[in-house]
TrEMBL record:
Domain HAMP residues, every copy: 1-54
Transmembrane segments: none
SUPFAM superfamilies named among the record's database cross-references: HAMP domain-like
Coiled-coil boundaries: none
InterPro entries: HAMP_dom (IPR003660)
UniProt name for this protein: Methyl-accepting chemotaxis protein
PROSITE patterns: HAMP
Length: 70
């Protein structure tokens, strides 16, 4: 039952990410088991993707601004 709840939490987090909630992260139990280790790596990846996406949004806004000023 505990494993099923954790899998549901992972699936829920990934669904939230796919819906645009880029700050969603997988909850950790902190016991260092395999699921926590994997979740830490997924969360790090999500953090990096979120940063890259925000950078891309900023670059796009900067380009749009530059084109508007010409």
């Amino acid at each position: 039952m505990r494993l099923q709840r954790r899998m549901e939490a992972i699936a829920d987090t990934l669904a939230r990410i796919s819906e645009g909630e880029l700050d969603a992260r997988i909850p950790l139990l902190g016991d260092g088991d395999d699921i926590d280790v994997l979740s830490v790596r997924i969360n790090a990846t999500l953090g990096r993707l979120s940063s890259l996406f925000e950078g891309m949004k900023q670059d796009t806004a900067d380009i749009a601004h530059d084109l508007k000023c010409r």
